[in-house]
């Protein structure tokens, strides 16, 4: 697989959510002071950094879901 291709077998239930998730990834990375590689290759990034981005994205998605369920 080339740079920027998704190696995960997971697929989004709503493919249109891809852009929103990408935007969220960049926002979280910026908040954490982590630069996302422009070429899409994450091999040179520390595992700690990619894990921090993923963990914070998950935390943010849970907060959004909780707010929606609470009717806010």
From TrEMBL:
UniProt entry tagged with the keyword Ubl conjugation: no
Entry keyword annotation includes Transferase: no
Molecular function terms, GO-annotated: double-stranded DNA binding
Keywords: DNA-binding
InterPro entries found in the cross-reference section: SASP_alpha/beta-type (IPR001448), SASP_alpha/beta-type_CS (IPR018126), SASP_DNA-binding (IPR050847), SASP_sf_alpha/beta (IPR038300)
One example of a Gene Ontology biological process annotation: DNA topological change
Domain of life per record: Bacteria
One Pfam family here: SASP
Biological function: SASP are bound to spore DNA. They are double-stranded DNA-binding proteins that cause DNA to change to an a-like conformation. They protect the DNA backbone from chemical and enzymatic cleavage and are thus involved in dormant spore's high resistance to UV light.
Protein family according to the UniProt entry: Belongs to the alpha/beta-type SASP family.
Protein name in the entry: Spore protein
């Amino acid at each position: 697989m080339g740079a920027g291709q998704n190696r995960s077998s997971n697929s989004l239930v709503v493919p249109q959510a891809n852009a929103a998730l990408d935007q969220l990834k960049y926002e979280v990375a910026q908040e954490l002071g982590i630069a996302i590689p422009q070429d899409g290759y994450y091999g040179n990034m520390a595992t700690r950094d990619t894990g921090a981005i993923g963990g914070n994205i998950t935390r943010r998605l849970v907060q959004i879901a909780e707010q929606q369920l609470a009717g806010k």
